[in-house]
TrEMBL record:
Source organism of this protein record: Chitinophaga fulva
Taxonomic lineage of the native organism: Bacteria, Pseudomonadati, Bacteroidota, Chitinophagia, Chitinophagales
All residue ranges annotated as the RNA polymerase sigma factor 70 region 4 type domain in the record: 124-175
SUPFAM superfamilies to which the protein is assigned, alphabetical: Sigma2 domain of RNA polymerase sigma factors (SSF88946), Sigma3 and sigma4 domains of RNA polymerase sigma factors (SSF88659)
GO biological process, one term: DNA-templated transcription initiation
Annotated protein name in UniProt: RNA polymerase sigma-70 factor
GO terms assigned for molecular function: DNA binding; sigma factor activity
Domain RNA polymerase sigma-70 region: 27-94
PANTHER family: RNA POLYMERASE ECF-TYPE SIGMA FACTO, RNA POLYMERASE SIGMA-70 FACTOR ECF SUBFAMILY
Family that this chain belongs to: Belongs to the sigma-70 factor family. ECF subfamily.
Length: 196
């Protein structure tokens, strides 16, 4: 990128930081497709990628007063998107587990054999998906899910970097999601795409 382009982007960020909506729209149109492709690589879902990109730009607009201090917007944008995607996927995984626990509780309270059968299917499918993960990825996921360890604690326990732990968690959740989607009879599709 030459100095003219750098100055142009700097000027654009300055306008956005001052609340210029037209400049923000230009910034969005410049980056949203490339950022969407990047987020899609992390999530494997077009709809999820679209939602995350929209949310990332909303956050940038809400914190626009800081843009005048950003010297490398590309790095700033992609780091923001990557961090938000990790948080989004982790939250999705937690909500899936909470739904499964809730359904198991309902089944236990009602004694409904159909509910028990569905819960058993959920657990069986998730366990099968976990069993197919590479050994290190599986251990990272299970330390998070079963022992409730944070990423820093997992990194210390396994003697790997936090970035490696994050990568394993993202890939594990993506693999589990993909595996679950091959079993639509369990209605996991609804749990994955409509977590609320």
């Amino acid at each position: 990128m030459d100095n003219k382009q750098l100055n142009s982007e700097h000027d654009l960020l300055l306008l956005v930081s001052q609340g210029d909506e037209a400049a923000f729209a230009r910034l969005f149109h410049t980056y949203h497709q490339r950022l969407g492709a990047f987020v899609y690589q992390l999530t494997g879902s077009l709809s999820m990628a679209e939602e995350i990109v929209q949310e990332v730009f909303i956050r940038i607009w809400e914190k626009r007063d800081k843009l005048s201090q950003v010297s490398h917007f590309h790095s700033y944008l992609y780091t923001t998107a990557k961090n938000y995607t990790y948080s989004f996927l982790k939250k999705l995984g937690r909500e899936l587990e909470h739904k499964q626990q809730w359904e198991m509780t309902i089944a236990a309270d009602t004694g409904n054999p159909f509910e028990e059968t569905m819960d058993a299917r959920y657990r069986r499918i998730i366990d099968q998906a976990i069993a197919e993960l590479p050994a290190q990825r599986q251990r990272v996921y299970l330390l998070s899910r079963d022992e409730g360890l944070r990423q820093a604690e997992i990194a210390e326990r396994m003697a790997i970097s936090r970035e490696t732990v994050k990568k394993h968690m993202v890939l594990a959740l993506r693999a589990i999601r993909s595996y679950a989607l091959t079993h639509p009879e369990t209605n996991l599709l609804l749990l994955l795409f409509f977590p609320k």
